[in-house]
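Example record used in the benchmark description.
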Amino acid sequence: MSCPRCGAKNPARAQFCSHCGFGLERRQDAAELRSLLDKGDIAQLIERAGAWVRQQPGDALALRWLGHACFFGGRHEEALEHYRAACRKDPADFESALQAGTLCLALGRPLEAEALLEKATSLKPQPQASPLAGVYGQEPRAWVAAAWLNLGLARREAGDLEAAAACLEKAGQEDPNSALAFSVLGELKLRQGDFAKAIAAYERALQIAGDGPNALALRNDLGVACFRNSQLDKALEHFKWVIQRDPRNANAIHNLGLLYLRQGDPASLAQDLQGVLKADDAAGVLVGLTRSLVDAARQEARSHDPAGLVGVSAPMRQVFDLIQRAAASTATVLVLGENGTGKEMVARAIHEASDRRSKPFIAVHCAALPESLLESELFGYEKGAFTGAWRSKPGRFELAEGGTLFLDEIGDLDPGLQVKLLRVIQERSYERLGGTKTYKADVRLIAATHDDLRRKVADGRFREDLFYRLYVIPVLLPPLRQRSEDIPELARFFLLRTSRRTGKSFARLHPDAVERLKAHAWPGNVRELENIIECAVALYDDTVLLPEYLGLEEPPAHGVREAALKDVEPGNRDAAEKEVILRALEQSKRHISKAAQILGISRRTLYRKMGRLGIPGARKM
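Model output (structure tokens):
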């Protein structure tokens, strides 16, 4: 008699399996259900499995079979419930843990899936008698590989890319012929910036897949990895291979467009296309390629302004659009925003996008000089105008002739200079200090302030007529805390730029570092973020910027952490933090993933804190 659980041979009248202890009297029930499944009678299968569970509610095998029946019947929520029940009844039930984790992943619950699949990887599968052998195969290693693969997918969905990649590497070790494991590993390595390993993973996936239905997508992804690794010839080869077999492949056309956009070689583009395309396909592909180039240029313009502004959020897209509109005009612009938001960069962006870009851009900080010096700086002076004026000197208005004059912190301008500036704006003319000659002011004026000028006007500290002369095209820059989606892009921009300038090897930010940055309040806005990144690059030498390099406090957790901190005595940070973590572990029944979710931090960060605070390890399931 064969055991339906492990497949081992037993004597004909044995009541229990000598190998796994399975009760062989249930063999007849399992055989009947298998027969119904083979016939495709799912309704009867569910009814019969349900009856078995009602007769023996504590039987893990009966619960697992009811889970299978609901799974094949498309009733996934019910299947998940029964698989979980089977896991509780039999903690060594690999099959139920695997199926429950896979269903959680499919239902969009990555943290639950992670816990179940992590447990499955520590168990031993018994696939011989399983109705899922057609899905996962007969080899136990293939089942273990499936558990590691799905665990990697769950951790990818949870945002822990490093842990996800480690799981997929183990899946590839268990099943060296899993094209899916290697292709997802390639995707993760690409996202992590490890392009060499991404290329190796994609090449292995292609070797396994051959010329199958996934070959086009894998070739295209391999081309992207080569492109990111600056192997442009290989990337070109892969993109052309895809287009030769599918001339309308939008992804390959788009990527080929990006490649030639980077190379800036339209002659080679035309020559290569003639070599890979048929005449009747050429027109369509060229149209698609042109659109790709335009889309890429627009995307680049949206995320990186020519003057160095970076942002993908809706408020910054509005700012970029307003910059382009203002650049087409000669009207005065007033840039409003907190300190550190990039007001001067906006002014430079307007200048660079205008017809005056070939002329000077002159910046004056109105709060940095006293009234007497600021007047001579703005308008210049003649020889002998005051003690020490041994020669004539042109002012900033004169130096900016034909270009743009940027007056920063205009709200700090003294009342006397406000009158003189108003005259220049109205009459477009001025005289040097101590002189009688009138000069024409052919300048584009852009002013900026962090002050509330309307309040200053109401208080009598700023001229109302000057305010309305300046407030022609207002550009409001949002503070960094109101556009948190821009923080990762800004941080990467500063990290790569500073690394290049200093010769360091930083290539990317750790996900926990990104979360730490997004949780910060940023009172100093973009300037503060730039300084923090520059400091981290200066003090450390690594390829990945870790959260501890930033010098920022841990982000406040959600839910239980705030509630718990109210009850903890102030003044002892470690004690308070330990108490919060212990409460989260108690609430989650010492489930690491759930505790991390309650605290609003990653599993890796929670493990690190537990080690530092001396909290005993928690179970993983």
